[in-house]
Amino acid sequence: MLLYRLLDLDGEDVGEIDLGDPVGAGDVVFAGLGQKLRVVAVVPATGAESRFDAMLMVEPACAAIGGAGEAQVSPSYAPCTSRRRPAGLTQFSR
After folding, report:
1. What is the pLDDT, as a whole number, of residue 66?
2. Are 8 and 83 within 8 A, CB to CB?
């Protein structure tokens, strides 16, 4: 498992997630409470003492995705058309 720290586009900490597969910019991850987040950037963790494999800059994914049994990491989907900062991502930890 890979452990990622999640940050919104302003750099605010919004939680962490552990995933079985590596992710890249444009991927959509399914987070706690049914949230779908689009990965904007991946920043590798620095320092041997970090418990995270990388940091993910994320934003809410607007495209409808899902279905029972769908994999946790999905290929690229269209980003939100509005670039306004979201009202807030729910903090979670998996």
Report:
1. 47
2. no
